Amino acid sequence: MHEITFDKLAIEFLSKLPLEIKERIYNKITLAKSNPHHLFERLKERECYKLRIGDYRVIADIDKNKIEIRIIGHRKKRLWA
Question: Using 50, 70 and 90 to split pLDDT, how confident is the model at 29?
C-alpha cells in the first residue's frame, strides 16, 4: 500500500469544490493506494503522473511507497508551467 500525501495547492483547490466533486476525487485517489500505476498515467517528457477524474485532473509524483498529490485542477487549464 502506498501512502498518500497532498501538497498545499492541491488541498486549497479541493477546499473550493462542491462536496460531491471533492468526494469523487478523493475516492478515486484512494483507489490508487494499492496499485497507482493501474490508474495513473505517466506524462510524456515529465517525471510525474496524471489521473483524470471527470472534468478534473490530478498530477502526482509516485515513488516506491508514496503518492504525492502535487496539483488538482480543471482539465481545460494548463496545470504546470
Answer: very high
DSSP 16-58: TS-HHHHHHHHHHHHHTTS-HHHH-EEPTTSS-EEEEETTEEE
- Within 8 A by CB and 6+ apart from 9, the residues are 70, 71, 72
Instruction: Note the pTM of the prediction, 2 decimals.
Output: 0.88
Rounded to whole angstroms, how far apart are CA atoms 59 and 50? 5
> Under CATH, which number does the domain 3-74 receive?
3.30.2310.20
The alpha carbon of 6 is separated from its chain's Cα centroid by a whole number of angstroms, namely 9
